[in-house]
Amino acid sequence: MFKTIALRTAVWLFSIGILVLLLLIPMDTEFEEGRGGSFMGATYDYQVQHHVANIQSFFPYIYETRGLGTDEAGHPIMDQVTSVFVRSMLIFMPAILIGFFVGIAKGIFDFRARKTKARLIGQPATISFLSVPDIAIIVFIQLSVLLLQSYGLVDIDLFGHDQIDNVLMNILYLSIYPVMFIANITFKTLEAEQGLDYIRTARSKGTGELKILYRHMLKNGLPKILAYSNTMVLYTLSNLFIVEVFTDYKGAAYYMYTTLGSPTTFYVGALVSPNIISQIGYIFMFTIVILAFNIISGVARSAISPLGDGR
Amino acid sequence: MNRTLWIGSAMIGTLLIIILFGPYLPAVDGSMDRTLVLRDSEGTLLVPPIPPSDDYLIGTDRKGVDLWSKVIIGARETFYIIGVIVAVRVVAAFLISIGAFYFNGLRLLMNLWNSFFSFMPTIFIICILLAIPGVMFSDHRSFWVLVIISAVEVGRLAMVFYENLHQQRKQTYMEAAITNGGSRWTLFKNYYWPSLVKELVITTPMEAGRSMILLVQLGVIGIYVNQKFFSQLDRSYRAVETSDAWPVLLSSLRQDIYSAQWIPLAALFAMTFSIIGFYLLAEGLKKQQEIKIRRV
Which residues contact B80 (CB under 8 A, 6 or more apart)? Predict the structure, then answer.
């Protein structure tokens, strides 16, 4: 277990190193302006020594400021980064938790309903939710809310970040994928466990079906389900990005998108990322979350097969 | 009777017909004229986007182009993009996985590559890479966007192929083949290669579906493959998409939800349809292979 944690932390250090390197790429862009300052084009000329200089000044900066330093207005960047990050986690963590609990419940339902009339809303429904892009579901939910609003039935604020509505709706959007993902994994795990000898033994000894399901199959399958949590977390973080940008929820992913000098807009002369430092802060925070889940899933994996912790 | 395969093939077949004969299909206006103002039967003026009506089957977009024609004609470009992404991914993953299977150094590289990407959500890394000025202002930006979108998933796909080879090696009959004196090349040609091809048949439609989902996501946050920068009033520059591809229809999604729902709905329907088609095709092919094995 210690080895798992050490290995994953090392990989994390490697990843964050590369990301910081990418973010510190110098921005030496020369704009060609036409008449009246119109944009004619831009030339970019990468120079290694500037990159090295950026890196050399970055580490002393972090060391001297004991954190991320202050912005132009004198506010500590670290405080901004954390407060915005907490806002993101406010929708991300509940979505993941709902994903686990509701997902496992849905998986068990799918498994138990697989041979009854209710099976249509079981496994096939899970699969179809997984294959439809989330944004299509989100748009569908929003259109339904707007329709209900036009009849005056509900009153929900769809865009922004300061209302409780926004938080709740975003949790709903974000939790769709984790729920279905975990349900699918749970279903597959239970299906694989079902034919095993110890289940047949338990059944022949007269153990009740429900007891077999929860006490034996689910308990043995849980590490397998946890082992997949890494994929789910990565995908949900990607979704967090989309959902925050789309619904104007001003969390860490939203600010990361805008401070990256979002790939779709720029101003002549003022390029591109004045706030590389805060970007590095966000990246650090997000990768820490991923590392935490990575360790959980790694430990779960080594619990399944103590020797085979290769991946 | 493999129903999944039939439905999947029918859906992808429909798309193929649209891609090949799109401009000649009924009710498609190949010229894609813009309608600036329209007068309805009572004489009131309508400005685009015009809602679905007799003239425009599913309405028009914000420039007044007939949406039905736009979706049908845009299919060709959309699937061209998907095709390039899938081809780059599959070829690169093929080479990497075979290399990693035979050479330890390459395997280490593949694992490192994978672990790096396992710490960054796909969308984040794409945004970071696209914000590098060398990419952003490159003359071949479209090319780089395609390369980046393909590259971020190559590691995962290589792992799938590698896993396949690894499973193959564990088979008992492989030992027999080795003791019978099969050379490295013979083993590869007669055992590993066919098994890879079998995997490839399923993976290709799967990847097409995945890349389509990625294009939808990127479309929502305003990243497209074909973009040009145009001047705005406030001396800023905004990337304007210059293509008819489907994701572009999502560019003003947030306004459209209030005022022109038919635009995103048409785009999302077209893309969801193809994603489900690809997945069903993959599932069906998988089933078909299982049936074949059972018969032998």
Answer: none
Residue numbers of the domain that contains B187: 3-295
Q: Where are the beta strands (DSSP E) in B15-59?
A: 38-39, 45-46
Nearest to B222 among A261, A264, A273 (CB): A264
**What's the longest Cα–Cα distance across chain A?**
88
**Complex confidence, ipTM:** 0.81
pLDDT value at position B116? 81
* CATH no. for A2-25+47-304: 1.10.3720.10
User: Could you tell me which chain A residue has the CA closest to the CA of B279?
Assistant: A131
Q: What pLDDT shows up at residue A34? A: 58
Torsion-angle region of B243 (φ positive above 0: left; ψ -120 to 50: alpha; else: beta): beta
Pairwise CA distance, residues A280 & A182, whole Å: 31
Residues of chain A with pLDDT under 50: 262-264, 267-273, 308-311
Which residues in chain A have their CB less than 8 angstroms from residue B261's CB? 143
Query: Using an 8 Å Cβ cutoff, are B56 and B50 in contact?
Result: yes
What's the confidence (pLDDT) of residue B59?
73
The burial class, CB within 10 Å (0-12 / 13-18 / 19+), for A151 is exposed
Using an 8 Å CB-CB cutoff, list chain B residues near A14.
112, 115-116
Residues 149-208, chain A, touching B (beta carbon < 8 A): 159
Across the interface, do A11 and B115 touch by the CB < 8 Å criterion? yes
State whether residue A21 sits within 8 Å of chain B by CB: no
Number of domains observed in the structure of chain B = 1
Nearest-neighbour CA in chain B from A246: distance (Å): 7
Flag residues of chain B having pLDDT under 70.
1, 27, 29-48, 54, 57, 137, 227-242, 296
The set of residues, in sequence order, having a beta carbon less than 8 Å from that of B144 and lying 6+ positions away, is: B135, B138
- Per-residue b or e along A208-231, where b marks 16 or more CB atoms closer than 10 Å to that residue's CB: eeeebbeebbbebbbbbbbbbbbe
B231 and A261 within 8 Å at the Cβ level: the answer is no
| Partners of residue B217 in chain A, C-beta under 8 Å | 133, 135, 238-239, 242
Minimum distance, in Å, between the CA of residue B251 and any CA atom of chain A: 11
Annotate B181-227 with three-state secondary structure: CCCHHHHHHHHHHHHHHHHHHHHHHHHHHHHHHHHHHHHHCCCCCCE
Q: Where are the domains of chain A?
A: 2-25+47-304
Residue in A19, A128, A268 nearest the CB of B235: A268
Taking phi over 0 as left and psi of -120 to 50 as alpha, with beta for the rest, B20 belongs to alpha
Residues in A touching B104 (Cβ below 8 Å): none
At B280, list the tokens: 């069903």
Compute CA distances A245 → A161, A297, B152, B158, whole Å.
Answer: 11, 29, 21, 31
Nearest-5° Cα angle at A206, A204 to A207: 110
**B240: part of which helix (H) or strand (E)?**
strand B236-241
Q: Is A288 on the interface with B (CB under 8 A)?
A: no
Q: Which two tokens stand for residue B175?
A: 């030992």
Q: What is the CATH number of the domain that holds B148?
A: 1.10.3720.10
- DSSP character at residue B65: B
* Alpha carbon separation from A181 to A106, A231, A237 (Å, rounded): 10, 9, 14
